[in-house]
Amino acid sequence: MKRDLTSVFHAQQHAVEQAPYPSLSTRRERLGRLARMTKRHQHDIVRAIQADFGKRSETEIRLAEISGVLQAIGYTRLQLWRWMRPRRASMPWRLLPAKAHIVPQPLGVVGVMAPWNYPWSLAIMPAIDAFAAGNVVMLKPSEHAPHISALLAKLIPQYFTEEEFSVIEGGVEVAEAFSALPFDHLLFTGSSQVGRRVALSAAANLTPVTLELGGKSPAIVAADADVDRAAAAIVFGKGMNAGQTCIAPDYVLVESRRLDAMIKALTQAIAHQRPNDKDATSAINERHQQHLDNLLEEARDHGCRIIDAGPHAPVLIIDPTHDLAVMREEIFGRCLPVIGVKNIDDAIAYVNARPHPLALYAFTDDKALQLTLRQHTHSGALVFNETLLHHAVPSLPFGGVGESGMGSYHGRHGFERFSHLRGIFYQSKRPSSRLIRPPYRRWLMKLLRLG
User: Fold this and answer.
1) How far apart are CA 18 and CA 352, in angstroms?
2) Domains 2-213+405-424 and 217-399 in one fold
């Protein structure tokens, strides 16, 4: 398999050498093929994802895996000509009449390591940005989603040459060999633990990496918030894909005096949004389900109040202690701790005492508090009065900070992530720079304020 990896990589490198700067029409045409592949085979995509999960809502698949991809492709094709244009850079007056531009240049071969939780969209989304930037792509789907991995390996060769877009299937050993290739850029989406190994492997080749790692994304419910409105948004974010979402709200912080009202509102929102198993999603496999069961059992054994509406609905864990696994680890499932704090300052301190999350959700209409949260917290994204939906805005960067990852993509941010922003300097026929060449004249240096 290592030899196959290397041969595919070298074939893609050769293709880049032959066409180092694909035209706007070529890039749009590649994006069009991605859209056609997704549209024509959406029923196959739904079936493959449901086969991997055992049970997953078709509506949520279409929302999160198909609709989002098509929206991103349409936005990118529309905006691409603007992103590709050279941008004029300002010139110091002493160097006039020289000119300077910033020109986006394709990097070359981009590697994408996709996760299992959104196995179609998180495989295709990075490819959208990489193709927009003029690159070719090697994709390693997750071995934990074998049906969608097999579908990607089947469909992509029908729409792309191997030199444009190739799929490498396999387990951990293949993933390790994949991350060790000297890509021009490598994007990994997954856990922090695996992300560290990927970064170390890429560092041997000085390969730049984008890491989308997740973490524990908090939801702060401020004193002025409408608890019913907040609860509806939190349950939506936690219920989507059974909480197996890197930006799912991981725990809720609310003033202790409003804790009972928050619990009631969350319980009602769960009953309204998840009344039965019709739109339910299962844990990806038995091992992950056992992990989630262990988190819940430990909390129960330590005397936490548990409110469980059923096996496929968010389950509330009231005031768990900080040493419990459910508060130390990213949950990535239906467990939702709800924690009472003294006030908003304590909530902010609680968040800041922990690794920076991929998303911070805050429920408040207080402009002063919103400004405080903007200036005194760190997170990949800051979202007010909603959950998840910032991911559906193609013009916003998507990425983490610190423990939740490095680098961002989506839209123009993804285009620039997979481009080298090359500085170009154009000297004039009568350069002013001759004035600062030796032999140096002291009076002239003073006139030019250079000495």
Assistant:
1) 49
2) no
**Structure confidence at residue 2 (pLDDT):** 52
Give residue-wise pLDDT tens across range 31-66. 999 999 999 999 999 999 999 999 999 999 999 999
Residue in 431, 438, 429 with CA at minimum distance from that of residue 95:
431
Tens digit of pLDDT for each residue in 346-376? 999 999 999 999 999 999 999 999 999 999 9
Does the domain at 2-213+405-424 match CATH 2.120.10.30? Answer given as no
Which of 212, 255, 330, 403 is an active site residue?
212
Q: Which pLDDT tens digit goes with each residue over 255-311?
A: 999 999 999 999 999 999 999 888 889 999 999 999 999 999 999 999 999 999 988
User: Of the listed 60, 65, 246, 304, which one is catalytic?
Assistant: 246
Whether CATH 3.90.550.10 fits 217-399: no
What's the pTM value of the predicted model, to 2 decimals?
A: 0.94
Is 255 labeled as catalytic in the residue annotation?
A: no
- For this structure, is 246 an active site residue? yes
Query: Low-confidence residues of the chain, pLDDT below 50?
Result: none
The Cα–Cα gap between 411 and 414 comes to 5
How do the domains of the chain map onto residue ranges? 2-213+405-424, 217-399
